[in-house]
Amino acid sequence: MTLNASILAGKFIVLDGPDGAGKSTQLAALADFLRQTGVDVVVTRDPGGTAIGDRIRQILLDRAHEKMSVACELMLYMASRAQLVSEVIAPALRAGCCVLCDRYISSTVAYQGAGGADVAAILSAAKVAVGATWPDLTVILDIDPAAGLARLTGARDRMEAKDLAFHRRVRELFLKQAGEHPQRFAVLDASAGAEQVQRRLREIIAGHPWGK
User: Fold this and answer.
1) Taking the model in full, what pTM does it have?
2) What digits encode the pLDDT tens for the residues 22-55?
3) DSSP structure string for 63-93
4) DSSP bridge pairs for 189
5) Burial class (CB in 10 A: 0-12, 13-18, 19+), 190
6) Which residues, in sequence order, are bridge partners of residue 15?
7) 157 and 63 Cβ atoms separated by less than 8 Å
8) What's the longest Cα–Cα distance across the chain?
9) 182: how many CB neighbours lie within 10 A of its CB?
10) d(CA 152, CA 154)
11) Which domains does the chain have, with CATH numbers?
12) Model pLDDT for residues 91-126, shown as the tens digit of each residue
């Protein structure tokens, strides 16, 4: 399927999913591909993506902060996200760029939801943090949590280090979001090789009914 580059101007695409699904790798490859087709692309990550957001990210993922409450997590993620939207995402969209983001609100619903936060409360906080800046498409890179965690190298951060039961709840909440909002979400099996996943990701983007 051929990708019409002009359709992606001013569009906001998020890659999300369980740990170890390969989001960062796939996002970088997708950005390179889109640039080669003539799309103006801005790549960012959540949490982080700004000087303020990166400081918040360090706090959130530091294993020294094991006692952090789910409510505190929720507010910190939203604070980082609010700055990211204000400083990076919204200006890029207004300029007609296609924004690619590694994680977004869907992650907070999944991870803090798995930790016991009320999903309706998460979404209410998100509306305050990001206003009308919601993704046009969120692609969930889906993988069995045990397989995903086995892919991780190096020391695990505070969220990655949680037990397998937690990560299974996270996956369930990702898939639930996709099932409830099929017009804004797509699910991609991320257990295959990187090239095959990238090919399928491009097909999803090319076939998405942008604004139709």
Assistant:
1) 0.96
2) 999 999 999 999 999 999 999 999 999 999 999 9
3) GGGTT--HHHHHHHHHHHHHHHIIIIIHHHH
4) 142
5) buried
6) 102, 139
7) yes
8) 49
9) 9
10) 7
11) 5-207 (3.40.50.300)
12) 999 999 999 999 999 999 999 999 999 999 999 999
